[in-house]
Amino acid sequence: MILPIFAYGDPVLRKKGKEINKEYPKLDELIENMFETMYGARGIGLAAPQIGLPIRLFIVDATPFEDDEDLTEDERKFVSTFKKVFINAQIIEEEGDEWAFNEGCLSIPDINEDVFRQPKVTMEFYDENFKKHTETFEGIVARIIQHEYDHIEGILFTDKLSPIKKRLIKGKLTNISKGKIDVSYRMRFPLAKKKR
Hints:
196 residues; globular; two-stranded parallel ribbon; alpha+beta; 5-stranded antiparallel sheet; Peptide Deformylase
């Protein structure tokens, strides 16, 4: 089932997610719905707060990057199969010199800005079967994971922009929260006027 994506300005996007256990109600169905929602919006990652749930769960599918000519052949091969569920994720370490990449977000449509992140991240997390993993990710995959991890920490990519950039997009962000934007997927806008 495709769920509505919560737009910029909704308080749930600012909440730090709570850990869950394997008894979380209908977890398999929730994960399936999240993938369906993400694919319906043509996304590469989706975090539970973006569908209104302040829990530590996010999904990533980097396969759309398999045709990216900026990636090496090995990187393209890796992303072509990279699809993962992250539950109760924690960053253990981030390494390397920060690099800029143009990021967007399904909760903040039509805004893309360069964000600086470190190229290597080591994570501890559980998969959908509640098997624990400690893995290191690099490059574009690390970036997607860091972006989604920020969501479960109540952080948005716009928080990482310079004060001047934030001022330049302030009007657009307000319009998004009011629903004054044309999107091709279901969204829930916190400040949209209800039709009578």
